[in-house]
Amino acid sequence: MKDVETRPRRYEWIVILAILLASLPLILGFSLLMLSSFSREMVTNLDLSSFHFTLENWINVFQGKLATTGGIRTNILKITFNTLVVALGVSGVVTFISALAGYSLSRIDFRGRKHMMVLLLILHAFPGVALIVGVYLLYRLTFPQNPDVIRLYSFFYVILARAALEIPMSVWLMKGFFDTIPWEFEWSGIIDGASRIKVWWKIMLPLIKPGILAVALFAFLAGWQDIIYVRTFLIDQTLATFIEANIEAEYSHMPLIAAAGTLYLLPTIIFFLTAQQILLQGYSGGIKG
Amino acid sequence: MVKIILKEITKKFGDFTALNNINLKIDDREFMALLGPSGSGKSTLLYTIAGIYRPTSGRIYFDDRDVTEVPPKDRNVGLVFQNWALYPHMKVFENIAFPLELRKVPRQEIEKKVREVAKMLHIENLLDRYPWQLSGGQQQRVAIARALVKEPDVLLLDEPLSNLDALLRLEVRAELKRLQKELGITAVYVTHDQAEALAMADRIAVIKEGKILQVGTPDEVYYRPKYRFVGGFLGNPPMNFVEAEVENGHLKVYESKIPVPAQYRELIEKLGIKEVLLGFRPHDAEVIKGIGEGLIGEVYSFEPLGREQIVTASIGGTFVKVFAPEGEHFTFGEKVTVKIREDRIVLFDKKTERALEFLEE
Fold first, then answer.
1. Are A184 and B82 a contacting pair at CB < 8 A?
2. Same domain for B130 and B261
3. Residue A184 to residue B83, Cβ atoms within 8 A
4. What is the pLDDT of residue A284?
5. Domain count, chain B
6. In this structure, which CATH number among 1.10.3720.10, 1.10.10.60, 3.40.190.10, 3.40.640.10 belongs to the domain A76-284?
7. Cβ-based contacts of A190 with chain B (< 8 Å)
8. Per-residue pLDDT averaged across A247-258, rounded?
9. What is the protein's membrane topology class (chain B) (predicted)?
10. Per-residue pLDDT for A8 more than 70?
């Protein structure tokens, strides 16, 4: 499609300019944040004279110092690990469930299938914040007595709760991907002697790899970025809640928070740079035949 | 190696009847073509034999075994799809080996069988490529190899040649026919291309709107169509039809009169039919310049085809196409006489469009 001229070339720069203008505040904000993470003082108000290069912040981040003068020690590596656990957990649960559910909705004509699809859309439109009281109630009710497993349980619960928010949309996405696969692939497998589940695993899943990747990435980022659910349910901190908790604390050294913030942004940036093509494919719902 | 018997098969999708009371017997080692226009239900019938669709009513037998409720994998059929449905994430070898792997055949035997079937189809040098690295013709062969590797009792083919270009189609057509006979496998072949059906099949079942109109050898369906539709669907160009009235031993077509063909004299008398459709094939008539004995009309158009030419004549507004030898020159609007070989004329009842000789069936 790239080679098809859809509009005259000379208007292209207007479009580019508009895109640049629209994203300028974001680009500016992110650049200042990253710059500050390598500086002794915060680089704010576009005042570059306050930039003094140092790696101290990053070293401190990885040594787990929150304030430069000794002070509170927080193990950022551990927080990063927590974040990873939540994000991977959400991603795993969402991908697994939506790959199965999307297949069923696309391929199996069971009773109530249409209603279920409408219900999924309604569920998706429901804001997660509105549900949090009920979800919290359930959390209290199921909270384990054994103090040894409390931490583990809070991870388990936050992953499930956060995944539940992502699942409706992901199932829709997956269904869309399965819909693009011609029935013949499946029939061929069935005639060759495969069970439905084997067809799903051996033929269908490999065919919708871009879709799986897209869903997994979005779910990962959702888990990585979440603040409200993590703060409500998780006993430990993740990068998001850590930054949020310290951003206005008097003892915190802001450039250090900037370094933590940059660390927090990293996966998002990496994913969108490397997986751009796949995600675009994901959006257009296409596969290469 | 089985014979297939379809008994009163009806298949409905919601309110739509895709197959309407189909009765068909396919002999062991026979090459049966299911021929019909798109939407006629021929693919549905094929998938019903394969077990992908369960008939709404009716039974399917492989030999004496009732397979109506048997799942596809236990019917031992090989199916080649129109789009071939090769698994794009598997190499050619893995594609062909897939049915065997599912049957838990030992690795060594898989290796041996895949190579055997690949050799038979001349694709042994393509085994470690991916499907998208192959040409259409090669993908086609892989699809056939995958269907054959499990040594099925029945080979089902769903328009397997329609994605190939014209020349390749002719080549594969001949090869496929030979392969089927060499393997001695019962084959059902779905196509909308009448030439393919005529060229390859032992027998042809012509299907329209979910019903079988006629089953017979290529000669039978070609020369003795039971319905106007069958005559008009087979042949290129297809059979010509002109309306005629029976008038004391003659057929009156527009302003011309020809005698009722000898083979129909008794029948017409017996049936007492007045209005008929006169059908004849383009190569069963000749165009004679000027006015003579036959159907008189004028030249509407002519198309040289090298060895011969197709002359389209208008007989009182009805167009008929007739082959004429090369070198004969026609002009637009010229008066001609279409002289039909009497013994090749097929008469149909105008109302039911059924051939007169099958009218009482």
1. yes
2. no
3. yes
4. 46
5. 2
6. 1.10.3720.10
7. 52, 71-73
8. 77
9. Peripheral membrane protein
10. no
Q: Which residues of A touch B190 (CB under 8 A)?
A: none
Tell me what pLDDT residue A129 has.
Answer: 85
User: Measuring CA to CA, how many Å separate B63 from each of A107, B70, B186?
Assistant: 32, 14, 12
Which of B180, B167, B157, B171 minimizes the C-alpha distance to B34? B157
Chain A residue whose CA is closest to B148: A192
Question: In the predicted model, is pLDDT for residue A3 greater than 70?
Answer: no
Residues of A in Cβ contact (< 8 Å) with B82: 184
Q: Identify the pLDDT of residue A72.
A: 64
Which chain A residues touch B103 with a CB distance below 8 Å? 193
- Is the pLDDT assigned to residue A286 strictly greater than 50? no
- Which of these, A48, A47, A45, A40, lies nearest to A259 by C-alpha position? A40
A187: contact with B, CB 8 A cutoff: yes
State pTM to two decimals: 0.82
Note the ipTM here. 0.84
Contact B102 A191 (CB under 8 A): no
Tell me which amino acid residue A59 is: I
Taken as a whole, chain A contains a residue count of 289
Q: Give the residue from chain A lying closest to B151, CA to CA.
A: A192
Q: What's the token pair of residue A92?
A: 């795993």
